[in-house]
Design goal:
about 45% helix; single chain; 10 helices; globular; eight-stranded parallel beta sheet; about 280 residues
Amino acid sequence: MFIIGEKIHILNPEVFQAVSNRDIDAIVSLAFRQIEAGADAIDINLGPGRQASDMLPEIAAAINQSVDTTLFFPSGPRKFPQAVKACNKRPVINAVTADPDDLARTMAAAECLNTELVVLLTRKGILPTVVDEWCLLAEEVIETAEKIGFPTNRLYLDPVLRSVFDPYSPAASTSVMETGHLCHALKLIKQLRQDGIRTLAGLSTISQHLPYGTRCAVHCSTLTMLAAAGLDAVIMNPFDKKLMATANELKGDLSKMDISTEAPEDSMSTGAQAAVPQ
């Protein structure tokens, strides 16, 4: 399980203030603290502002002087190519949707700049809730990569976790309704190519409607299920000690874990079965 720290995000007040003050040292410190807490890589999302975009290459260079780690960042900022060149390790574009035009354009840029790429398994008109939708979108992404010549071992496919909100019982609102379907989809996606396809998920999106005190338990249980289904990487809060303990336990325990390979009831049509090579 590859752990990506999520805290360098413009919605984090600490980061917003650092960007506003052009305080690169504060951002580097936040990156370093996440690595110290156990993160393997750092996600950077400074928002669409011009000032943040202009700072990105300097931030990437400064972080890499402090810690030798992989950086994830969006391709939107104006100075994205300069930020890529400032990295010690191959960076990762996070992320593009499976919309055919955006995907082909971003994938071509990722190939040209020698980066890896996260693709969100969603596009206009499709936000998957059943296995065949996730698998068919994954197959479309892989076929696009093969057509362009982008190595599939430089792809991460993100199924886009989301919460299921119960307005009558907000404390019970989780993504459990779709977790069984999603876990089965992850297992099938791994089989789409002989060498395997890497998958990634962002945990925080599943707890947006939950009271703060209940989020950790949901994150831990969801991560355990996704890891058993073969999830390769997770974007999460490395400062959550209980969640980090769970993630570290999973790193050494995955060989002992498994979940049913049978699809949950009503989760998959014959379309998904057809998408998996026999």
